[in-house]
């Protein structure tokens, strides 16, 4: 496998973001043959860039797409520079499946990231998504994983709010 592991913007050339003592986070976002839903994909990508949380990077992973969506994703995000989080593009040589694609991204994350968010390509995040999840995890060290509330696209109905596990 090859990774286009060159930063598509570092904190220097994308304007940087003050960290205010926040723990570092990584957002992993996976693409695979998404051209048929490209307008939704663009909305999802835009929501990553609009996060209020300050200290995070975004890894955009392509899982060997062959429908032109990878080029569309890269073109939509543009070459930088600009204000925003560091953004990197990674490509797999073959389709590793959903979990395998995210595992690939996880192996390429910033090792100083305390938190990793796994985001589906059709998820539209609220601006406070990452801040809320990191805040909850920081308040309670017994929390090992967190999920946001998933609603329908129009926000009118909760689709999933996760579940509670006591580990027993």
Structure description:
It is built from 4 helices and 6 strands. The radius of gyration is 16 Å and the shape is globular. It has a 4-stranded parallel sheet with strand order 3-2-1-4, sandwiched between helices. The chain has a two-stranded antiparallel sheet with strand order 5-6. It has a single domain, classed as Spore Coat Polysaccharide Biosynthesis Protein SpsA, Chain A. The N and C termini lie far apart (39 Å). A hairpin with a 6-residue loop joins strand 5 (150-151) and strand 6. By secondary structure, the protein is α/β, with parallel strands linked by helices.
Main attributes?
globular; Spore Coat Polysaccharide Biosynthesis Protein SpsA, Chain A; disordered N terminus; 4 helices; 26% helix; four-stranded parallel β-sheet; alpha/beta; 168 residues
Low-confidence parts = 1-18
| Helix-strand category | alpha/beta
User: Could you give a short account of the major beta sheet?
Assistant: 4 strands, parallel
Radius of gyration: 16 Å
Number of domains: 1
Topology (SSEs and partners):
Blueprint: E1 25-31, H1 38-49, E2 56-62, H2 69-77, E3 87-91, H3 97-107, E4 115-119, H4 129-139, E5 150-151, E6 158-160
Parallel strand pairs: 1-2, 1-4, 2-3
Antiparallel strand pairs: 5-6
């Amino acid at each position: 496998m090859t990774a286009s592991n060159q930063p598509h913007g570092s904190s220097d050339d994308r304007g940087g973001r003050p960290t205010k003592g926040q723990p570092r986070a990584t957002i992993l976002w996976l693409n695979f043959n998404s051209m048929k839903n490209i307008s939704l994909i663009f909305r999802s990508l835009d929501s990553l860039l609009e996060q209020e949380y300050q200290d995070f990077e975004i890894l955009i992973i392509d899982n060997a797409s062959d429908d032109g969506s990878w080029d569309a994703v890269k073109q939509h995000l543009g070459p930088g520079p600009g204000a925003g989080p560091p953004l990197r593009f990674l490509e797999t040589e073959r389709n590793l499946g959903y979990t395998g694609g995210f595992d690939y991204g996880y192996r390429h994350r910033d090792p100083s990231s305390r938190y990793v968010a796994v985001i589906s390509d059709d998820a539209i995040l609220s601006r406070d998504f990452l801040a809320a999840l990191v805040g909850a995890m920081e308040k309670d060290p017994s929390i090992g994983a967190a999920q946001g509330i998933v609603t329908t696209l129009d926000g009118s109905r909760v689709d999933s709010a996760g579940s509670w596990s006591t580990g027993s």
